[in-house]
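During the no-cost extension, the postdoctoral fellow (Dr. R.K.) reprocessed legacy sequence entries with the updated structure-token encoder. One reprocessed record is reproduced below for audit purposes.
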Amino acid sequence: MKYRTDFVTNSSSSSFTIHIALETVDDCTIWYENTGSEEAGYDVELYLSPRQMGRAESIDALIALLQGEGTNDGFWEEPPPWEYPEDDEEDFCDEEDFYDEDEVCNADGVSGESGNSGEDETSDAGEAGKADEPSGEDAVAGEAVESSVEEETSDAGATEVADEFSDEDEITAAEAFIEQLRELGSMDRIKSITVTGHEGGWLSANHFQQYVYDRVSGRYSGRVWGKPNPKGQAGCLRFSDVDECGME
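Re-encoded structure tokens follow.
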């Protein structure tokens, strides 16, 4: 399971990531996550606990709950593009900071000028092979055929890429998640549901909340750890049945 932390900064801004993961009876995971950012004026809120999700009468009922009163309007929207602060640009190192050209080894593991002998051998081999190269009209005809083949291959590749990434075929992460839920067909295919909330930002705040509902055993558990953010807020988990959850 992964958690997005790309909005986490050491400034007074806050971020909040919500991650929903449904594990199926055949050990596949269907998940969706979104991150709210106080700095970007975009928040995500989930009011539907994993137990409430797991007790839905059908997949269609679950989707209706998720898209209805179970979430805020921003929960299913694409987050705004993240822009790194200008100060961060100074943290990137130039290529020359990683190595010294004089210390770069050749294929034989020899560094510095000792690699010149290999260049001389390559040069001699190249001159020896020139005698076998076609010349005159044969060379021109060969280049024309080769150029034609390259253009046809390039056009075909461009067409395939255009078809693969056509705007008409693009869907959002939210739409893909809902479609995967529909493909399940039945709630009986869901083994467990996990919801994780991750808050980060102010003074390196790093706070997690995680709630799990096991549809097989009926066990509803949760745990909280880390340092919460006492300042701004970019999202929340607000479950009405949290008092009935066995906290670890």
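The first strand starts at residue 15 and ends at 24. Residues 15-81+174-247 form one domain. The remaining legacy entries will be reprocessed before the final report is submitted.
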